[in-house]
Amino acid sequence: MTNRVEGTNKPAGFIMETAFLPIFGNMPQPSERELLDTLDEAQQIYASAGVTTCSEGATHAKDLAFLRKGAAEGLLYLDVVSLPLILEIPALIKEYAPSFQGGPMELPKEAPNAFGFYKSHLKLGGIKFALDGSPQGKNKYVGDTVLRQFSQADLIVLNKTDLVSAGALSSLRAWLAELAGR
């Protein structure tokens, strides 16, 4: 599905790939207990390869609730670093800080305490942004949000820099430094 500017054929900023949703939504789903029971087997696969820390690199709110339950039940023995997707933050705030009354670009003052610390082998490692130039990232809300996040970031990691020219990389670094006021 492509959202378009009304009355035109011009894309309105993003493309939604939704063909699989009706099929996936109607597939039988395991119970939460069945999923929790698979944690040991999944960790054994990683542990057998010498992995001691796993990254859940695009965590949805319901998946974080699942991981927290597994941690609370003592089912995690490998360290799991969760990176909730930026679009999941409103749902996480509603669940974990229901009395928060801040604005759309604010976080509860307790939010920093939720990141960077293991509790029963689970920690929130940060917030995941997908800034890959895809059509999903080319809309005003995401663009404004990303610019504000960049301007306040303590650390920005650029990867796949070998895929761009030295000039493009230099321009990007200069733009990021300007944006950050450095």
The whole-number mean of residue pLDDT values reads 80
Radius of gyration: 20 Å
β-strand amount = 5-15%
Largest sheet, in brief, is: 3 strands, parallel
Q: What is the total tally of β strands? A: 5
Helix content: 25-40%
Strands in their spatial order, largest beta sheet: 3-4-5
The secondary-structure element order is EEHHHEHEHEHH
Pick out the low-confidence regions: none
Shape annotation: globular
How would you classify the helix and strand content by structural class?
A: alpha/beta
Q: Determine the N-to-C terminus distance.
A: 41 Å
Keywords, separated by commas or semicolons:
single chain, 182 residues, alpha/beta, three-stranded parallel beta sheet, two-stranded antiparallel ribbon, 5 strands, 38% helix
Please explain how this structure is put together.
By secondary structure, the protein is an alpha/beta fold. The protein has a domain at 31-128. It has seven helices and five strands; from the N terminus they run E-E-H-H-H-E-H-E-H-E-H-H. It has helices at 21-26, 32-37, 39-48, 61-72, 89-96, 140-152, 166-180; strands spanning 2-4, 11-15, 53-59, 79-84, 122-124. Strands 3-4-5 form a three-stranded parallel β-sheet, covered by helices on one side. A two-stranded antiparallel sheet has the order 1-2. The protein is globular and about 50 Å long. The model has no long low-confidence stretch (mean pLDDT 80).
